[in-house]
Q: What sequence folds into this?
């Protein structure tokens, strides 16, 4: 009887090893295709329930992650921020309210249109706005300087307004949000949408669409924007001589996280790190919160990343597939699956994955993509037909083929895992 049981156990183990080997062989052969010859590719697929590594190739090597970096930003925000986004800190003295930014990106933002600060400020005779509590430079390290006038590269600041972009449209007549800068827009067929160092904007008269152009953020602009919405009440200061002990709150945090992840919004990602740093100090610093998270919550990472910004715009960032899988596993353990998956783009359904990785009957990919020139990565969760949840990170660097072709090759592996694991 005992010998029979032992034989059955040995058979089951050998069968499991054989099936695992078959799965690995299929993926290995796929990645050995000449398509991958002249690029650097890494893949880790992990079963969080059984703790089994389904497949691994170059998983411990460093890659340029692009917007996969936002997974670390999301993890950071979920660790330290409350259910409602902190809007600003404030203090009240007689008929004066003093408010100081905490990096909240939602104030008058085109998508969120939060007006918490404006509503509160209207109740006071005088309003003091405190700036200059941010240690970050306005651009992240390694960002491409020529992107200064592109929608995806707004400046960072302690008290953002309107998403730090000027929204311009010309349907029946020229319109701008904020209206205060309308007179600084000029019709021009120039390829540039703004002067390099000042708020002079250009809009091609042949266009009929809406564009967003980053503003140059300085004290004078902030004063101008506040005077436009609250005339003759606002003064701007570099610092406050009194402690600001109260905090106002903005939108539900998950709405910010979801927007950042779905459309891969660089501005929201950068400001989320700054916002998270406000839980450590009144002096805002995305570096401080990154270091804190890496040295505490993520001190067990097998490969410590080089993490320099919140969005992934910088090519200085270096992450391994293993690090992404580790963080995704932590999120999977900490956050209910329905809430967690709701924050990620869904294959064939939403966000940056709307046109890729669709399921046959229902979605099976919940993941964050990352794209820079010649680099594409995807990290997240895959639901198999048998109901298993797999965590994966698939990273591709330095290819010269089209990104669409890279995605098609990746999809072959994802669909095989979905159907066979």
A:
């Amino acid at each position: 009887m005992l010998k029979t049981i032992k034989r059955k156990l040995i058979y089951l183990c050998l069968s499991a090893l054989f099936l695992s080997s078959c799965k690995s062989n299929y993926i290995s052969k796929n990645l050995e295709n000449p398509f991958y010859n002249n690029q650097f590719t890494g893949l880790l697929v992990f079963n969080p329930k059984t703790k089994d590594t389904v497949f691994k190739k170059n998983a411990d090597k460093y890659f340029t992650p692009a917007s996969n970096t936002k997974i670390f930003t999301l993890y950071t925000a979920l660790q330290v921020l409350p259910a409602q986004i902190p809007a600003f800190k404030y203090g009240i003295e007689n008929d004066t309210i003093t408010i100081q930014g905490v990096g909240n990106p939602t104030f008058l933002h085109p998508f969120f249109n939060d007006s918490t600060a404006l509503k509160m400020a209207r109740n006071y005779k005088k309003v003091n706005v405190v700036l200059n509590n941010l240690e970050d430079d306005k651009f992240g390290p390694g960002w491409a300087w020529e992107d200064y006038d592109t929608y995806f590269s707004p400046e960072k600041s302690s008290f953002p307004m309107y998403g730090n972009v000027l929204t311009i449209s010309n349907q029946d007549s020229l319109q701008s949000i904020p209206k205060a800068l309308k007179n600084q827009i000029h019709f021009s067929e120039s390829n540039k949408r703004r002067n390099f160092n000042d708020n002079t904007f250009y809009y091609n008269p042949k266009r009929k669409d809406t564009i967003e152009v980053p503003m140059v953020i300085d004290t004078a602009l902030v004063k101008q924007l506040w005077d436009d919405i609250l005339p003759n009440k606002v003064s701007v200061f570099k610092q406050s001589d009194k402690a600001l002990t109260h905090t106002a709150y903005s939108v539900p945090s998950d709405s910010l996280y979801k927007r950042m992840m779905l459309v891969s919004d660089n501005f929201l990602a950068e400001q989320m790190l700054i916002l998270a740093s406000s839980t450590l100090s009144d002096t805002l610093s995305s570096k401080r919160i990154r270091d804190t998270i890496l040295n505490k919550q993520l001190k067990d990472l097998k490969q410590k990343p080089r993490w320099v910004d919140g969005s992934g715009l910088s090519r200085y960032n270096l992450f391994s597939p293993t690090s992404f899988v580790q963080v995704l596993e932590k999120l999977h353990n900490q956050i209910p699956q329905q809430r967690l998956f709701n924050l990620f783009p869904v294959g064939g359904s939403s966000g940056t994955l709307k046109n890729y990785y669709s399921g046959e009957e229902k979605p099976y990919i919940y993941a964050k993509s990352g794209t820079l020139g010649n680099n594409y990565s995807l990290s997240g969760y895959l639901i198999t037909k048998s109901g298993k949840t797999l965590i994966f990170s698939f990273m591709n660097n330095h290819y010269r083929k089209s990104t669409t072709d890279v995605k098609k090759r990746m999809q072959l592996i994802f669909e095989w895992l979905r159907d066979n694991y």
In short: The CA atoms of residues 178 and 373 lie 32 Å apart. Residues 76-277 form one domain. The chain has a mean pLDDT of 94. The radius of gyration is 24 Å.
